[in-house]
Write a structure and sequence with these properties.
Layout lengths: L10 H6 L3 H5 L8 H19 L10 E4 L15 E4 L2 E5 L2 H21 L8 E7 L5 E10 L4 E8 L12 H13 L3 E8 L4 E10 H24 L23 H8 L11 H30 L20 H11 L11 H7 L27 H5 L7 H8 L3
Parallel strand pairs: 6-7
Antiparallel strand pairs: 1-3, 2-3, 4-5, 5-6, 7-8
The structure holds iron/sulfur cluster.
The site of iron/sulfur cluster has 16 residues, from helix 2 and helix 7.
């Protein structure tokens, strides 16, 4: 195992838990439908950037996924899938085109703000090496020599909102890219249609700031992760916290198991704030384990296995017209087949950026259709030992200032 690089995409986990890469290598991670679709969308983004074609021109075309096919095609919900000869194809649709369009718009906005296109054009799927241990592939990279700035964009296709300020992944790509071009500044942009970053948010850092963060926080964690690979006992390198959420190694992690086992329910009204915080963490650990159990049970039942006292049921889906169905409906109902609905503020920001100013201040109110929940604050913020004199700098990096 020594010699394997640490990936920036998993950095929020290995920075907080240096033992994670060792355990992650031990678990079999079946490819999910969401990951396959994400890969396909990145292929389309690359295609659009290299050919200049608009994503909407590609709607209806099939994208071949020759490898990494999830065993269960029924997990592809909401997309058109065709399978044969060990390959699958998904049909590129409007929703997917909007993901790619959102990323292209974000790049366009960067160009407009800087006042010129990047030198040599945008570079999709660029391999970047930060040091002997950390390397990965950035979705899109641009170099603006006039202002000595590198720009890195990441297109997220999942539903879970990515916190641009807290995710270290793009800062690592930016730092690696800065090395190549000897840049003085780096801008990171996340484009995520679902999850709250439809417009793509950008933060600008000085390379000195990023280097200080790398020295203080990243390099020591990377060295610990490398050390963990050679260690006989992995436990001292494992650290439980908010970063455990969705960790693929949860099921085999001894530290996490012990943490969950320590759960001791108490009457909630009598809990102190500290006890409440601790029990929230532990309850989340148990919830995570329950999610693993559910996924395992669904997988087995889909393959025909029986689980005592349980049966497999589908959640209620939403029905959609096919193009033929829509045509028939229009034949019968005419214009009444369509309902006039006002665009949401997010749709205006997406489709009419020139009018995005309408969505500021008092022109809309926000209704939240789910109840409030206690969000866990970053673990790393509490755990990092800051070098003397660098406290303010680290704080400003975290705030993305
Ligand atoms: S579950 Fe948590 S402690 Fe265990 S390997 Fe994953 S991130 Fe580390």
């Amino acid at each position: 195992m020594p010699g394997r690089v640490l990936s920036p995409s998993a950095s929020s986990r290995w920075i907080a838990c240096p033992g994670f890469p060792v355990l992650a290598d031990l678990v079999d991670r079946p490819t999910s439908a969401a990951a396959v679709i994400g890969t396909a969308l990145h292929k389309i983004l690359e295609h659009c950037l290299t050919t200049g074609q608009e994503p909407f021109e590609l709607i209806g075309s099939e994208i071949e996924i020759a490898k990494d096919i999830p065993a269960d095609l029924s997990s592809f919900t909401g997309v058109t899938v065709r399978a044969g000869d060990g390959k699958i194809w998904i049909t590129f649709d409007t929703d997917q085109a909007l993901h790619v369009d959102s990323a292209l718009r974000a790049l366009h906005e960067v160009e407009e703000a800087i006042g010129c296109p990047p030198d040599g054009g945008w570079r999709p799927e660029t391999r970047l090496v930060l040091d002997e241990h950390i390397a990965g592939t950035a979705d899109v990279l641009g170099w603006f020599p006039a202002i000595e700035r590198v720009v890195v964009l990441d297109m997220k296709t999942g539903r879970n909102a990515v916190d641009v300020e807290e995710t270290p992944q793009l800062r690592l790509y930016a730092l690696a890219a800065a090395k190549v071009f000897e840049a003085k500044e780096a801008q990171i942009v996340v484009s995520q249609r679902q999850g709250g970053h439809r417009r793509g948010r950008g933060l600008v850092f000085s390379i000195d700031e990023l280097r200080a963060w790398y020295d203080i926080e990243v390099r020591p964690a990377a060295m610990r992760a490398v050390e963990a690979r050679a260690a006989n006992d992995i436990e001292p390198y494992l650290s439980v916290g908010a970063h455990c959420r969705y960790c693929p190694a949860i099921a085999i992690c001894p530290a996490y198991r012990r943490f969950a086992m320590e759960f001791e329910p108490k009457p909630v009204k009598s809990l102190s704030p500290e006890e409440l915080s601790e029990l929230l963490d532990k309850a989340t650990a148990i919830e995570e384990y329950r999610n693993l159990l559910v996924a395992e049970a669904v997988g087995r039942m889909r393959s025909g296995a029986e689980i005592p006292h349980y049966t497999l049921v589908n959640r209620r889906g939403t029905r959609h017209w096919t193009k033929a169905g829509e045509n028939k409906l229009v034949e019968v109902l005419g214009e009444q087949a369509y309902r006039r609905v006002i665009l949401t503020p997010s749709q205006v920001e997406d489709s009419y950026p020139e009018h995005a100013v309408l969505t500021r201040d008092t022109d809309y109110v926000t209704y939240c259709n789910s109840s409030a929940y206690p969000k866990r604050l970053s673990e790393q913020a509490k755990e990092v030992k800051v070098r003397k004199g660098a406290e303010g700098l680290l704080q400003s990096i975290r705030k993305g200032s």
